[in-house]
Amino acid sequence: MFPSTSTPSELSNYDFTAEENRSKWRGLFIKALQKVQQQVHPSLSAKEDALEYIEGLILQLLGMLCASQPHSVQEVEDRVQKTFPHPIDKWAMSDAQTALDKGKKKSPLVLPVDKIHPLLVREALGYKLDHQVTVYIVAVLEYIAADVLKLTGNYVRNIKHNEITLQDIKVAMCADKVLMDMFFPNEEDDFTVEENTTFVRRGSLTYEEIVKDLILEETQYMHDLNLIIKVFRAPFATLFPRSKDLDVIFSNILEVYEMTANLLSLLEDTLEVTDEDGMLLVGACFEELAEGAEFEVYEKYAEDMLKPNGRERLNTLIQRNDTLRTLQSIGGRGFKDAVKYVLPKLLLGPIYHFLHYFDVIKSNYYFDIIVKTDGVLFKYAGRRLTERYILLFDGLIVLTKVNTRRASVTGPVGEYKLKEKFNIRKIDIVDREDTEELKNAFELVVPNQSSVILAAKTTEDKNNWMAALLSLHTRSNLERMLDTALKEEEKQHPLKPLDPQVYR
Fold first, then answer.
1. pLDDT over 70 for what percent of the chain?
2. How far apart are CA 310 and CA 305, in angstroms?
3. Mean of the per-residue pLDDT values for the chain?
4. Listed residue (5, 69, 57) closest to 30, CA to CA
5. Where does the record place the DH domain (predicted)?
6. What is the DSSP annotation of 340-351?
7. Coil, strand or helix: which one is 192?
8. Which of 106, 157, 416, 425 is the most exposed place for a label (fewest CB within 10 A)?
9. How many angstroms separate the CA atoms of 325 and 16, rounded?
10. Cα 306 to Cα 317: distance, rounded to the nearest angstrom
11. Of residues 301, 290, 287, the one with CA closest to residue 256
12. Domains of the chain and CATH, by start
């Protein structure tokens, strides 16, 4: 199930998934996983079978970590580096090291270390093991469990449900390249999602439901702003703290964030203080901000974002060696392309969101934007360009050609003919520099297969395609980078409890 660089003689024969062994571990993690779920999504609950499924994943992971029969923390760390996809390996190891540093009394771990340790020694390994090694292993397990639950909870909240099901976990994991590579690297056909899921269409919304939807939208918008500020802007702020480049590229995004936080706070306060039978009026929230000219931050932001010099300066800076080294150290080799292509699209988001306020105020009309990209590209092979019609889905890119046969004696013929298809998580997207022979091109690198080179008609078309592809390819890692940044910020600025005397 997991990629491994160890030789068979080095690996333990203990199978955590075998029924005779599984029974000894079954249920050991369930109560702790409930606590982990409450930590990452306190407003949600999880069904028993969902937690049992995560327990199975955890045991699978535990088997991989114990397969090389580790005797020290360093050996476990080496195993994680060799087998975990990058960059989740460094985040898991960072959490594990924190657990070690805090010691037993201040341990942040929820999973039952004291119950796991004797089972590991007696059943799985068969030799004495330092308790610290078990702490490190359990911390890695808990990080991954929290990651799965955080990802699934985000999906559940987006579809406006309040309970995590087994089906939700499978759907969320299917869209996550890192977790699929970790747990199901070669099993595309075996990891199936049931197709009998029913979605209930909501009827006419009450005013309160509309307000709650608005708050949910603003919360997601705050998340997107945080992604821009703490993942993309932060490296440039570190490298060029006093440079005007920050304003040229990101404009007054910090002021936009502050204004959005104020609006969200007003909306939440209004919803909270309104009596059950009282009239809920949130228009006053917009009116209050408008009277204070708070929305004017968007005027400067829109003017700056619609100028070309921001993107031009961004492209110049990411060619510098110091910038490249910093970006790669933070997010791996794919982060530079995400900065080049995904960031400019994200920076346009606040403009579209501001325009959406007018729809909210005028008609209370709500809609979800489902990203679907299709269009014409040219496949480059043997110095020939062949036109292909491309369909980009959430986890699949499909290359087709126009079917010149419009009908046949056996029945109608499809408008397009399938030529190739690629699983998004199985490919690497590589940017290609322009040459005299080929311009506006990028490459789909498929392991153990010939690469596919595609070219767009214009630079703008290429930028749009690269943004769409890289958004799908990197979004899970970008989310994890944001979570890591928020955790670090929380550590640096912990909430200090007030002295009890204050309340007397």
1. 84
2. 7
3. 84
4. 57
5. 206-363
6. IIIHHHHHHHHH
7. coil
8. 106
9. 41
10. 19
11. 301
12. 8-183 (1.10.20.10), 207-363 (1.20.900.10), 373-491 (2.30.29.30)
